[in-house]
Amino acid sequence: MTEPACWRAPLAFYPGFNRFVLAWLDGRANEFLPRVTDAPRRAGRRISSELANALIESNQRWGFFVREEVERWARGETYTIVAGQQVGFAGGPLYTLAKIASLIRMKRDSEAAGVPATALFWLATEDHDFAEVATLSLPSRGKHQLDLLHLKATRGFDSRAAVGPLPVPEPLIQEFLAFYDMPRPSWLREGITFRDSFAELLGVAVREGIVLVDALLPELRRAGAPLFEHLVGRSEEIQDDIRKRSLALDAAGYSPQIIARDGEPYTLLFRLDADGNRQPFDGTAANPETISTSALTRPLLQDFVLQPDVFVGGPAEVAYYAQIAGLHQLLGVTLPRVALRGHALVVPKRIGRFFTRFDIAPMEAFSTTDEILADREPQGVAAVRDLAQDAHRELDAAIEKIRELALPADHALARSINRSIGHINYHFDKLTERATRGLVRKDKEQYAATKELVATLYPDRHVQDRVAGWIAYWFEYGELLVDRLVEEIAPDTAEFRIVSL
Fold first, then answer.
1. Residues 129, 131, 136, 142: what is their CA dihedral angle, to the nearest 10 degrees?
2. Quick one: 419 and 327 in the same domain?
3. Structure confidence by residue, pLDDT tens digits, 312-338
4. 52-110, pLDDT tens digit by residue?
5. Is residue 173 part of a domain?
6. pLDDT for residue 2
7. I need a labelling partner for 158 at 20 to 30 A (CA). Which of 108, 145, 438, 469 fits?
8. Do residues 422 and 383 both lie within one domain?
9. Is residue 272 within 8 Å of residue 279, measured between CB atoms?
10. Residue 237 has pLDDT above 90, yes or no
């Protein structure tokens, strides 16, 4: 029998998935964010030659030769699809590559339908979460299971610093190189910034026509100057709109992505000082090159400057749009079609075969090995649990009789008896647990295979694509990793996929 190329399951089974996005995918949250599954190419897009040339030059430095792509886009001749991500060390988690695969898949589908498309990937270089970009989790085979090895740089920069221009800490690079016992690649050369390292790695790993957009490009910030002026001039209306939408989301049972402190306004903009540190905004739209957006206004800047037809985001990014969708109309910024990125996990073929061989459903991988196997021994496990319950009742009855006889004694003896009863109950429960575990582990081959499958897709009880660095799989599978993700990814659907490599 031919093994499946990938396995599919509803996103409702994906641990911790955003409740609002699940409702939105099902068309039940249109009042907050229109659920649009198709949209025509917008008319009248015109991009300044200054910005277009800056994009061509920056991409060329990173290994992307996109002059023709950018020039067609700047003339308004292409369907424009945008996604983005922080510039994480060594490429960041697997979901970063899933976003890029979603972009490429949608671009290909558009062109197959006869509509030329441009895929733009926004590098969130103005983000100031150093801990996030300077952390990488790598699959590492331990003695008993697949664990995550966490590489993390200690804080060496001001917590308010925009991370893109910061140099990657040398100890972090050395730890990474030592783990893989590899020579130093150019994208990890001494002194390289997070922005350039991330972009150059993509230039090596992704051989497709995507255009990288540095959020801190001076030309981009200047193109956003009119928006900054509107944000400053209409700040009270903006605050009121966000507050009302946030309250409505909360009343509908959804948690707003950004919650302002009691009595304080929502943060809309920052000012970058000469060292690249975010400072409180000074209230003027002068010098747009030094203005930095917040999580709420970044989508507005992106939509104002890049004028996309489609924005492809993760669950949190979709939820951001629900909180700010009213600002697009208020500020005269066209709201793009919002699409959810594809959700994809990866497994080696050998491990993927365990799904079929042991009849394991994809959503079961987010459980424990013992829980999965207990469902496959329903009679035996039920018998152990029934016997344990019966024995527990008999034991409790006997203990109660002992208590009645002994309690007339002094209080110290009563406390000692109660402690002993607690110990007996604890060890009895542990005995039942061990008996159940022994029952489900009697088939050692099945147990080992199930444990390896769970450890691969749910390492350390985290969903693989949220934490595991895609670089680990790229080192092992090379171009196949990107090709398979693009082939199997399913953007803007209510399912996740487990892709066989």
1. -150
2. no
3. 999 999 999 999 999 999 999 999 999
4. 999 999 999 999 999 999 999 999 999 999 999 999 999 999 999 999 999 999 999 99
5. no
6. 63
7. 469
8. yes
9. yes
10. yes
Mean pLDDT to the nearest integer, 444-470: 91
Q: Which of 31-40, 140-149, 377-386, 418-427 has the lowest mean pLDDT?
A: 377-386
pLDDT 10s digits, 142-175 = 544 456 788 887 655 566 889 999 999 999 999 9
Distance CA 227, CA 84 (A): 20
What is the predicted pLDDT for the residue at 144? 45
- Reduced to 3 states (helix: H, G, I; strand: E, B; else coil), residue 329 is helix
Residues 432 and 338 in one domain: no
- Tell me how far apart the alpha carbons of residues 111 and 118 are, in angstroms, rounded to a whole number: 10
Question: What is the residue-wise DSSP string for 93-115?
Answer: BHHHHHHHHHHHHHHHHHHHTT-
Structural domain harbouring 314: 6-131+192-347+460-500
> Do 15 and 463 touch, CB atoms closer than 8 A?
yes
Q: What is the pLDDT of residues 264-304, one digit of tens each?
A: 899 999 999 998 899 999 999 999 999 999 999 999 999 99
* 62 contacts 203 by C-beta, under 8 angstroms: yes
Cα–Cα distances in angstroms (integers) from residue 193 to residues 49, 101, 120, 221, in the given order: 27, 24, 21, 20
The enclosing domain of 474 has a CATH number of 3.40.50
In this structure, what token pair is assigned to residue 285?
A: 């739209």
> Hey, what's the torsion of the CAs at 55, 59, 65, 71, to 10 degrees?
-10
**Same domain for 282 and 426?**
no
Sheet of 117-123, strand order: 210-214, 117-123, 79-85, 310-313, 337-340
Q: How far apart are CA 79 and CA 406, in angstroms?
A: 83
Question: Reduced to 3 states, what is the DSSP secondary structure of residue 17?
Answer: coil
Tokens standing for 7?
A: 């396995």
Q: Residues in the chain, how many?
A: 501
* 3-state SS record for 262-327: CCCCCCCEEEECCCCEEEECCCCCCCHHHEEECCCCHHHHHHHHHCCCEEEECHHHHHHHHHHHHH
- Is there a contact between 6 and 498 (Cβ–Cβ < 8 Å)? yes
Q: Indicate if 277 and 426 belong to the same structural domain.
A: no
Q: Would residue 166 count as lying in a domain?
A: no
Are 106 and 223 contained in the same domain? yes
How many domains, in total, are found in the chain?
2
| Average pLDDT of span 429-456 | 74
One-letter amino acid at 246 equals S
In a domain, 426, yes or no: yes
Are the C-beta atoms of residues 311 and 339 closer than 8 Å to each other?
A: yes
